[in-house]
Design brief:
- Helix content is about 45%, strand content about 15%.
- It contains ten helices and seven strands.
- The chain has a seven-stranded parallel beta sheet with strand order 3-2-1-4-5-6-7, sandwiched between helices.
- Helix 5 links the parallel strand 5 and strand 6.
- The longest helix has 22 residues.
- It is globular and about 50 Å long.
- The termini are far apart.
Length: about 250
Amino acid sequence: MKIAIITGASSGLGVEFFKGLQNEALDEIWIIARREERLKEISALYGKIPTRCIPLDITTRESMTCLCELLKNESPDIRFLINNAGAGVYGALEGADYIAQGNMIELNVRSLTEITTIALPYMSAGAKIINSCSIASFVPNANLTVYSSTKAYVMSFSRGLRYELKKRKINVTALCPGPMETEFLAVAGLDNGSSKAFDKLPRCNPTKTALGAIKASKKGRAVYTPKGFYKFYRVLSKALPTSWMLGLAKT
């Protein structure tokens, strides 16, 4: 059974990934998020391929055990693993809620790492992994210090894993978009007016971003960054000292 797995599938980019995979040669798509009713709605609205809605909080050990058992029992051939679940919190670290900062690390780093490790035994040649990263991975972002650090991890993880999996012909792509008008911004505290600098940044289209990432992964790309503005920013981040870029990246 050929399947795709999408985490963070209940809204925003996760939904667009689900829609974008509908024409792939898959037997099932497994969509994972905490909101079961929302997953069912998305499946009913956009699901051409049979869909399995899996309500899990992937930050918990119980959920990871559940996913392990499900994969063991089904023994599917995972053709796409899309690690899209993630969270951000805007604001200076001083005075921040330490629990929220820790939860961000749990989701963006530990959960992504564990799900990938769990899934790899069920992946074969030609399979693709897409990790939702961010332009924040290019340069540390003041007021998004922990978030940008977690995304730097995702970038490093993606590149290292891609090299490891070359012999197995499994590609890993880090998706690095700029801001998108999704639920993420409001949850992160970055809705309109929170940061004048952030408000001025060009928005990426979620549909085009998901389709572009799928296309890039099928081409074997290591990193996909939509929009020329952010491609230039990525190049600039490599060319200039980090200390200079910190001022440009300040939100």
